[in-house]
Write a structure and sequence with these properties.
The protein has 306 residues and is of the alpha+beta class. The protein contains 11 helices and 13 strands. A 4-stranded antiparallel sheet has the order 2-3-5-6. A hairpin with a 4-residue loop joins strand 12 and strand 13. The longest helix has 16 residues.
Length: 306
């Protein structure tokens, strides 16, 4: 049997023992992301500073076109890993909304909670990296005509409208981080244009694998399978690598000398057919079964919705 591919092994759980307050937060909030940033590649897959503006144009089933232009800020385009913090803000917003509470577009969270919830370390450097991520999301500009909340208009906005570190104590430690969501995002959330993510999403080992998971979660969902050609996956992922290099990178994820075989992707498995240049994703039957018995509430909720 092939050994697990190091590129696809989940990251370890970095906080086995949680503070009571943090554990309460994580237990009461299911992970959510908006459908639109899952469908369209608004985040960079690069680990280096990415300052390349890009435009994507998609034809819809009704013949209309959707256009998405992503422009970098001073620190470059926000990365797929930066998006982790946006997911927490979205998840908090939806949790408050689903409880019938009044929700503002400004989401407050304690810095340590934000790092622990996204399975990051909590050293001084990690707080600085978190601030860099928030700055990249504020600086990255999106111009699009994607409809949210039933309203379609051409508009420009930052991935987030702003952020701030609120410090009220005298010991120099931050009390809260406040993330301001864009009006475009608020319309999507108010329209319940969201999908629930696997609780282990933040353990996925790379931006590329997170991006592939988003696409599978969006397109396969609860269907038995979803098939996509490598060229189309390359386009949808937003990868700036050539198709040849992207194909090689994806094939290296799979066990076997020729990139054949299958691998796990949380509640899905994926198999590669190099001869047809196609990847097929399968929903694991046991995940749906567990959701119906209450063992996987993150699926049960969405089964009811769909």
């Amino acid at each position: 049997m092939d050994e697990p591919n190091q590129r696809t092994k989940l990251k370890p759980i970095r906080h086995q023992q949680l503070d009571f307050f943090i554990a309460e937060i994580l237990d009461s909030v299911s992970l959510k992301s908006d459908r639109h940033s899952m469908e369209f590649p608004m985040f960079s897959l690069s680990k280096q500073k990415d300052s390349n503006e890009r435009t994507y144009r998609y034809e819809l089933d009704n013949g209309d076109f959707v256009e998405v232009r992503i422009s970098p800020g001073s620190k470059g385009i926000a990365t797929q890993d930066d998006k982790d913090f946006l997911i927490i803000a979205i998840s908090q917003y939806m949790a408050f909304r689903n409880k019938g509470l009044d929700v503002a577009k400004k989401i407050r969270v304690r810095p340590k909670e934000l790092l622990v919830a996204t399975n990051r370390y909590t050293g001084g450097r990690d707080y600085n990296l978190m601030a860099d991520a928030l700055e990249r999301m504020e600086g990255t500009r999106i111009r699009t005509n994607i409809s949210t909340g039933g309203i379609r208009q051409r508009e420009g906005f930052g991935i987030i409208d702003g952020w701030k570190i609120i410090q009220r104590s005298s010991d120099g430690k931050a009390d809260y981080i406040e993330i301001t969501l864009s009006d475009w995002m608020i319309r999507a959330l108010e329209g319940k244009e969201v999908l629930t993510l696997n609780p282990d999403y933040f353990r996925l080992p790379s931006g590329l694998i997170k991006r592939i998971y988003e696409l599978v979660r969006k397109h396969c969902g609860y269907q038995p399978m979803w098939e996509i050609g490598m060229d189309k996956l390359h386009f949808k992922s937003g990868s700036q690598a050539s198709l040849k290099r992207f194909r090689q990178t994806v094939r290296e994820l799979f066990p076997g000398r020729k990139g054949e075989g299958s691998l796990d992707l949380l509640e899905y498995t994926m198999s590669l057919d190099p001869s047809r240049d196609i990847i097929t994703f399968y929903r694991k039957p046991e995940f749906l079964l567990k959701s119906l018995t209450g063992e996987q509430p993150f699926l049960l909720e969405e089964v009811a919705e769909e």
